[in-house]
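User: Can you help me understand a structure? I only have the sequence.
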Amino acid sequence: MEVKEHLPVAVAAKARIRTKVVADGVSTGCGNLTGFHAGYFRISLSLCAQALLWKTLSEPSGGAAGGSHALRHLARSVPAAAHLLLWSVALAVLVALCFLYALRCAVRPRHVAAEFSHHVGVNYLFAPWISWLLLLQAAPPAAAPLSRALWWAFVAPILMLDVKIYGQWFTDGKRFLSLAANPTSQMTVVGNLVGAQAAARMGWPEAATCMFSLGMVHYLVLFVTLYQRFVGSTSLPAILRPAFFLFIAASSMASLAWDSIAGKFDLGSRMLFYLSLFLLASLVSRPALFRRAMRRFNLAWWAYSFPLTMLALAATEYEQEVKGGVADALMLFLSALSVLVITVLVVFTVLKAGDLFPNGDDPFAPPPPLGSSNHSSRFEVAC
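Assistant: Let's start by predicting it. Here is the structure, written out as tokens:
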């Protein structure tokens, strides 16, 4: 009888343990979604840009010689399956990040709204659409029939974000821009320029020119604002200072976009490319600017890869137009640097995944709601 009496107690205890394990799992999962912000799309930006770089290097070089010929020969000697594998990995990572962010939108709508209103967080909302546009340009020929419809699907969110952000700059006055502008604001420009490049490659010169003009006009305003505040700027935490490399990404992307619109790497593209080289030299000559960000591996390190890959892509187009030993050396050096940086980042990400993936800390978290939990949805409170 005593054994029978203790059976319900034991069963209840096991049920409580199972319930606690499930609750802890749900709590951990929801905590990770809380910390999963749009900044994680830096990873997909780098991978998609790298896929486009290798596709560009593997294309016919139009009579290149010397070191660049050797580099292109190496890229073309890589089996087509390897290029497809790199593109597929970039696609898989991007799809996974989009899925996780969609879950965040459903589970943590207040956090997403706070990110949308944050002067840093809102800029990375361009990153998934930039990634898709880069991946579209690097896609295998089999995806060509869908490219135009996909272009509209990826550009539409960029234009909607343009209206929100550029509209604030225009209507809220100079003081708003001077307070909110930071290096990540250049993501807004990069989004328009990537859309312009993709449109030009698909044979839509008017759409390309429209997006290019929209991006460049605001780039000039933003560049002047940021340039005046470059040294000692407090608009960005020290750990996010790798985002200063977006200075390189914007000018390099402008160079590539105009190259696609004009049909050749003309004077305008070369001027923007030279500006990118100057900005790179300015940044690498100031290692103290990034010292605090480099003390421990973190997500911000991925901000180095995408701009360097964009600069390497611009260098390949520069070499095609200018030719000569200097152009060859620039193309070799920048392409090798881009591959080296992303390789190091992938290795660190695999070895130190615990330092990279979210643990519930959201840098763009909204303030706690006033009063009762009625301000949030039931599902959000449960998580």
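Now, to help you interpret it: The chain is about 70% helix and 0% strand. The mean pLDDT is 82. Let me know which part you'd like to focus on.
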